[in-house]
Sequence to fold (105 residues):
Amino acid sequence: MSSNPKSKSKPAGDPQAFTRAAECLKTLAHPVRLRIVQLLLHGRYTVGELAEDCGILDNVASEHLRLMQRCGFFTSEREGRKVYYQVAEPHLQNIMNCIEDRFLS
Fold:
């Protein structure tokens, strides 16, 4: 029996945290949602503006935004009759950088 003199240090791992992470990553795993993230990383947009860019109906865009807000990705702010969405989770930039480097370069 041989023993390894160098002990491996394991990264911290919490099954509940991984469950939450997996749920949020599943939420992101949709082409329209990825485009919405990309747009919102560059500025504030209304539902109508996002829907138009993505070629979808406003109510469909609203549903995508609602799902992503549940993960804490976005916040919304009302200005008069318009509601603007913006990124609340700064780590989305890192995820989008990986996606753009791998698939859009």
Remarks:
- The beta strands are 45-46, 74-79, 82-87.
- The CA atoms of residues 45 and 61 lie 11 Å apart.
- The helical segments are 15-28, 31-40, 47-54, 58-70, 92-103.
